[in-house]
Design a protein that fits this description.
Length: 199
């Protein structure tokens, strides 16, 4: 502002000089003053240009920083979306694992119940066997007494061997169940049984 005011004063001085035709000394003084004002004006202009360059540089840096911040924010948003997707996936896997764990727990419970039932049935079978063994032995002895046949339990599979202690003489029994029908074997064995009652 002061530079422009000085210019105005200089211009008025020059007009005054031309109008009144003053002395050369005054003209030199005014010209010197004019040169000083022009120098100050050029310095001010250079300073303003330098300041403008600095401002433009700062604006570029701020703009670049803003772009970098936006890019980081965008990357952060992408990373946040990825993290949310991973969290959702982990949550789904957790739900699936919980369901599997619940199913396995149910199956384990059922297996324990089945094992308990089997143990209970085994105890019942043991108790039944304990009770029925004497009766089974009694039935086997009764069959032997009635049929008078002493069986060979150590013969090969498919063979029926033993000794029939008949009324007069003992005779061996040797039958091949792979060659003979069950009806024939049954009829033959019944034919050996004495039908006369002997108290």
């Amino acid at each position: 502002m002061a530079a422009f005011r000085d210019m105005e004063e200089l211009s008025q001085g020059l007009l005054s000089l031309l109008g009144t035709n003053r002395a050369e000394a005054q003209q030199r003084r005014l010209l010197g003053r004019h040169e000083q004002v022009l120098g100050r004006l050029l310095e001010t202009q250079d300073g303003a240009e330098q300041r403008l360059k600095e401002i433009l540089t700062m604006e570029k840096e701020v703009a670049q920083s803003l772009l970098d911040a936006k890019e980081k924010a965008s990357q952060g948003g992408v990373e946040l979306q990825q993290l949310e997707a991973e969290l959702q996936k982990a949550s789904e896997e957790d739900t699936c694992l919980k369901a599997t764990l619940l199913q396995l727990s149910q199956e384990l419970k059922e297996l324990k119940e089945t094992e308990a039932n089997l143990q209970r049935q085994e105890r019942e079978v043991d108790e039944d066997t304990t009770v029925t063994i004497p009766s089974a032995m009694y039935v086997a002895q009764l069959y032997r007494r009635i049929s008078k046949i002493e069986w060979d339990y150590e013969c090969e599979p498919g063979l029926i061997r033993g000794i029939h202690h008949g009324p007069s003489v003992a005779q061996p029994i040797h039958l091949d169940s792979t060659q003979l029908s069950q009806k024939f074997i049954s009829d033959y064995l019944w034919s050996l049984v004495d039908t006369e009652w002997q108290p």
